[in-house]
Amino acid sequence: MEGPFIRIEDTGEVAPLRPEITTVGRGRGVDIRLRDPSVSRLHAEFVRRGPYVYVVDLGLSRNGTRVNGRPIARRVLDDGDVISFGAARCRIGGIPREDLEPEVELRRAAAPELTRREIDVLTSLCRPALSDEAFVSPATAREIADDLVVTEAAVKQHLLRLYQKFRIPEGSNRRTRLANEVVALGLVRPTPVVPQQRGNPPANDPPPRVVNRRAS
Fold first, then answer.
1. pTM (2 decimals)?
2. What is the pLDDT, as a whole number, of residue 108?
3. Region Disordered: start and end of each range (predicted)?
């Protein structure tokens, strides 16, 4: 089959993508119909721009869209990527391979614009994940509140808005999923520690640095 296509894993059915936009969902009016009950009537869409294809979650489902297991809002796809709409899994093919520079790869997933306070919350949330520990959980709402000297209720409100901005669906380990997405996007990075000169007292490790990017 020439051009990009989707293979539905449950049925083996292969569906070519339309030249511009291909809609996906459980409703009768979509281009690619998935009958799994976890899929919304209008769940997502594939968009073709020249040789590139990206998938967009339309935000109409509580179960969200994932690419290779990671929740996304919008993501440029590579040949062989597995896209999950709720519990329905598909694999994309027919996309020409391209060598991407690291900077371009970093922007593959679109990052929302963040306020100053949201950056502070994400920095505090992800700080444990950027430590030298072999395995740590992200900070709790109480720990973030103590770190930022605000109320726990205020932190929870910020987290709710961040879940919406990053399209993190409801469920268990929501803070962990948010932290994973933020770190994977490169929005939070550890700040290099400057070596101390002999005779100077050791300084406290600086906090992680958050890079705010507009969605590309």
1. 0.49
2. 46
3. 192-216
